[in-house]
Design brief:
Length: 428
């Protein structure tokens, strides 16, 4: 039971009247008894909270940064009206507008809409629905809570989608579907055309040229039906924050752009999220983008060192045919030295490997600082970090590994461009 502020006001008003009619002590006691009677009566007349019935509907998923609505249907099977405040509680990260005023006559139902604006990825689970039913005098209220389960999955925002049209246009050029007839150096024969200055003489078809009145060259289109495996490192290195988001979120954004582009290019795309165990896997999905965002949504970084040997073994076990393996991880020297480098040859002997890493723009800013002694020390430390990353990149390149190292905003388009370059060169 909850007693409102009206009780104190009535006590102040009733005490002088009762005190005038009765002696002071008896008047105060009678006033208290009258007020208590009114409170009990108000409580008895308040609509029942326990008998209310609830049902949910509405959104089950939403992209991070977008709003959605979840509706709560409340039915009153009792014989008294319910005048109440309702709180539809959600976790703080759901960004819920959760307080509602409710008037519910007997035998009727009302629909309450809660607007959500989530601030984090993952599953946002509804907490309890609490109803405070106020009596007709406004002196007391019944309060009760009900479990009405509902889950809204908050998906990755896919900010890099804006880069997709330009990369698809380049893909169309490579496939020869654009008016600009640019041919890739793939391995799949496409057609013959007349030789023009600048063509590779190795593409001349001498038999066709002997039958024609001009020199003919073969044109090639980029390979299709190749296999691309995206590997998200969800270990300790992915937990570091760059700007307002962890590195894992930037890696997901780059992986989504590459996945959609590769799928449109006719390649098969798989996903594996791993640190010391598999946290998500997508293989051979026909609805690729929904499958990827649903698999990525609940992923969180683990504060453990990634088991590179286990990761490589898992990739080799799942991927029998030759593939482009895109590992989204860090370029920190120590973890790679102890983890990936000892097993690198196992992976590169079977597959082509590309490593994509999220760089911190703050490091480059610190390296340029020269304002005072503290800035110079910061610049020296930042320059050492940049030098280590360059050394790691050079060492990986000697093993035939493609490396894309860029800040979060630039990583998705640069990774997509590197994929298109490999495809055009027939190196997948």
């Amino acid at each position: 039971m909850a007693v409102t502020g009206r009780l104190g006001l009535l006590a102040l008003l009733a005490a002088p009247v009762v005190g005038f009619l009765l002696p002071s002590s008896a008047g105060i006691g009678l006033a208290a008894a009258v007020l208590l009677l009114l409170v009990v009566l108000d409580l008895l007349l308040a609509g029942s909270v326990r008998r209310l019935e609830f049902a949910r509907s509405g959104a089950t998923s939403v992209r991070l940064g977008e709003a959605c609505e979840v509706t709560l249907t409340v039915a009153n099977p009792g014989g008294r009206p319910v005048r109440a405040w309702l709180r539809d509680a959600w976790p703080p990260s759901a960004g819920a507008e959760d307080r509602h005023r409710l008037t519910l006559p007997p035998g009727e139902r009302r629909v309450v809409t809660t607007r959500l604006l989530p601030t984090r990825r993952g599953d946002r689970i509804a907490a309890r629905v609490t109803v405070r039913s106020i009596g007709p005098l406004g002196l007391a209220a019944r309060q009760g809570s009900h479990d009405v389960p509902w889950t809204v999955r908050v998906l990755p925002p896919f900010h890099s989608r804006k880069h997709l049209p330009s990369r698809l246009a380049r893909l169309q050029q490579l496939d020869g579907r654009n008016a600009v007839l640019i041919r890739g150096q793939g391995t799949e024969f496409d057609s013959l055309r007349e030789y023009v200055i600048g063509d590779d003489v190795r593409s001349i078809d001498w038999r066709a040229s002997a039958r024609a009145s001009d020199v003919m060259v073969r044109t090639w289109r980029p390979e299709r039906d190749r296999h691309v495996v995206l590997v998200l490192d969800t270990g300790r290195v992915s937990a570091g924050r760059v700007g307002d988001a962890p590195r894992l979120d930037a890696a997901m954004d780059a992986a989504l752009l590459l996945a959609v582009l590769a799928a449109r290019a006719g390649d098969r795309v798989d996903l594996l999220a791993y640190d010391r165990q598999v946290h998500a896997a997508v293989q051979g999905s026909t609805e690729l983008l929904p499958a990827l965002v649903n698999a990525m949504a609940p992923l969180e970084s683990s504060l453990v060192e990634t088991d590179a040997r286990g990761m490589v073994a898992e990739v080799l076990r799942r991927t029998r045919r030759r593939a482009l393996v895109v590992l989204l991880t860090g370029l920190d020297a120590a973890p790679l030295e102890e983890g990936l480098f000892p097993v690198l040859s196992k992976l590169t002997s079977r597959h082509r490997l590309m490593i994509a890493s999220v760089a911190d723009p703050r490091v480059a800013e610190m390296a340029a600082g020269r304002g005072d002694a503290e800035a110079v020390y910061d610049a020296a430390a930042a320059e050492r970090v940049l030098a280590e990353r360059r050394q790691v990149t050079a060492r990986l390149a000697r093993h035939g590994v493609e490396v894309v190292d860029a800040v979060p905003e630039e990583l998705p388009p640069r990774l997509a461009d590197r994929y298109l370059a490999l495809k055009a060169a027939g190196r997948l």
